[in-house]
Design a protein that fits this description.
The protein has about 130 residues and is an all-beta fold. About 0% of the residues lie in helices and about 50% in strands. It contains no helices and 11 strands. The protein has strands spanning about 5, 10-15, 20-25, 35-40, 45-50, 60, 70-75, 80-85, 90-100, 115, 120-125. Strands 2, 4, 5, 6, 9, 10 and 11 form a 7-stranded mixed sheet that branches. A 4-stranded antiparallel sheet has the order 1-3-8-7, with no helix packed on it. β7 (about 70-75) and β8 form a beta hairpin. The chain is globular. The termini are far apart. The model has no long low-confidence stretch (mean pLDDT about 95).
């Protein structure tokens, strides 16, 4: 059974930092590209960042470029999202997702994702 478990969410002041982690189990991690999505209150979920299965390719949504960094540790089956210079508009539930795409750059569509975590809440106070 595949499980993706996010951790690291919480309350932070604007300008602060948080590091989210996602631990994967039940899948061959190195065969999956990984992504982070978020859903703000009353809005649709949106792509935030993605990383290829090898870790060699990353992609970011425009509003987080230069502030967020996605990384993965294939030895530990984890993917992380380092978030700096947080803004109130970053407040959302953040979800980890796995895309069975062993080669090529990470995809950004939620419809391409095969597995999802349950999410972790990030609240940024202004």
């Amino acid at each position: 059974q595949v499980q993706l478990v996010e951790s690291g969410g919480g309350l932070v002041q604007a300008g602060g930092s948080l590091r989210l982690s996602c631990a994967a189990s039940g899948l061959t991690f190195t065969r999956y590209a990984m992504g982070w999505f978020r859903q703000a209150p009353g809005k649709e979920d949106k792509f935030v960042a993605g990383i290829s299965a090898s870790g060699g390719s990353t992609v970011y949504e425009d509003s987080v470029k230069g502030r967020f960094t996605i990384s993965r540790d294939n030895a530990k089956d984890t993917v992380s999202l380092e978030m700096n210079s947080l803004k109130a508009e970053d407040t959302a539930v953040y979800y980890c997702a796995a895309d069975r795409r062993t080669f090529g750059p990470p995809r950004q569509s939620k419809y391409e994702m095969d597995y999802w975590g349950k999410g972790t809440l990030v609240t940024v106070s202004a």
